[in-house]
Design brief:
Layout (H helix, E strand, L loop, with lengths): L3 H11 L12 H20 L1 H5 L8 H26 L5 H9 L16 H22 L5 H29 L3 H20 L11 H6 L7 H19 L9 E3 L4 E3 L5 H11 L3 H14 L1 H18 L1
Antiparallel strand pairs: 1-2
Bound molecules: Phenylacetyl coenzyme A (FAQ).
Length: 310
């Protein structure tokens, strides 16, 4: 049975009230939010790497400026989200430690390589498209700081999605080689994008509780379906073929039927065995180690300053 404090808390959630950092909350609620928000922050930071790979090779100055701005936005989102998680009583050092030791997850999608310029288009179109589908409902999350962070982040993600679709449009209206490059990118990013929404509902351990707490508003499968319904007409518009033989419009449901993602691959990727896990984590650990002298210098300066002013 729920204790009275927890019942009162659930009442606030049910009435649609926002929960703020200093207010009482069940330990499970705090832990779930720290897990989700910190993993979301890690995803933004690790998510800079696949696209960062193409900044020096963007085909025009304009594309380079746009890509630089997008990757910088992702850094901003990460920092914003770390701040939101810190309000729950975890330090940034602890969060980094969890990432670097492999205990904290980050989105499976960033463990795939970016092999061609079309991948930058596909990431903006599909990966940011999936991120928006997942994050728009998070704007209504019951935890105040997370919900407010999502409002700004979603605005920037919309720009990201449009820039990706714009790259795809350009390629699809281009030469045969460019169209092929776009098709190849769609084939490699389609299934991993569907996996971003998490395991099928039957295997989603956190969904029921997170939905009762209004941390999540929709199940993983509901959002995945919405994403498919939104994206297939966009692929048709680009004259690209979605690599799913089971994809079919279902008149009765007013939705697309589609095939099952390869869940073995998903679980391999989230347990550290995807194509780029080692490289991505290695890059983050190296950046952390390379920055040690800056952190040490700042701390020494702060200590000196504190001695002088006391
Ligand atoms: N990858 O019980 P559930 C972006 C884990 S967008 C890795 O269903 P939950 C923008 C899950 O953590 C990407 N792990 O879990 C951008 C749990 O393991 P745990 C980031 C996954 O939390 C675009 C276990 O599986 N967005 O960065 C994944 O209820 C372009 C069981 O799963 C967010 O993080 C996965 N795909 O639902 C940046 C959004 N799916 O923690 C750069 C916020 C599941 O017990 C470039 N997060 N797992 O060890 C969420 O909405 C939720 O956490 C879900 C998962 C929906 C991801």
């Amino acid at each position: 049975e729920m204790d009275p404090q927890e019942r009162a808390f659930q009442g606030r959630i049910d009435r649609g009230e926002k929960i703020e950092p200093k207010e009482w909350m069940p330990e499970g609620y705090r832990k779930t939010l720290i897990r989700q928000i910190s993993q979301h922050a890690h995803s933004e930071i690790v998510g800079q790497l696949p696209e960062g790979n193409w900044i020096t090779r963007a085909p025009t100055l304009e594309r380079k400026a746009i890509l630089l701005a997008k990757v910088q936005d992702e850094a901003g989102h990460g920092l914003y989200l770390y701040c939101a998680a810190e309000t729950l009583g975890i330090s940034r050092d602890e969060m980094f430690e969890q990432l670097h030791s492999g205990r904290a997850k980050y989105s499976s999608i960033f463990n795939y390589p970016t092999l061609s310029w079309a991948d930058i288009g596909a990431i903006g179109w599909l990966v940011d498209g999936a991120a928006i589908m997942n994050q728009v409902p998070l704007q209504r999350c019951s935890f105040g700081p997370y919900s407010r962070a999502m409002i700004r982040i979603c605005k920037e993600e919309s720009f990201h999605q449009r820039q990706g679709f714009d790259i795809m449009m350009k390629l699809c209206k281009g030469t045969e080689a460019q169209q092929k490059m776009a098709q190849d990118a769609l084939e490699r990013w389609w299934w991993p994008s569907l996996m971003m929404f998490g395991p099928a509902d039957g295997d989603s351990v956190h969904s029921a509780q997170s939905m009762a707490w209004k941390i999540k508003q929709d199940t993983n499968d509901e959002l995945r379906q919405k994403f498919v319904d939104q994206t297939v007409p966009q692929a048709d518009f680009l004259d690209l073929k979605v690599p799913d033989p089971d994809l079919k419009w279902n008149q009765e449901r007013g939705s697309y039927d589609f095939g099952e993602p390869d869940w073995d691959e998903f679980f391999q990727v989230i347990s550290g065995n995807g194509p780029c896990n080692e490289e991505r984590l290695g890059a983050r650990v190296k950046a952390w180690d390379d920055g040690a002298w800056v952190r040490e210098g700042l701390m020494a300066h702060a200590r000196k300053h504190a001695r002088r002013t006391t």
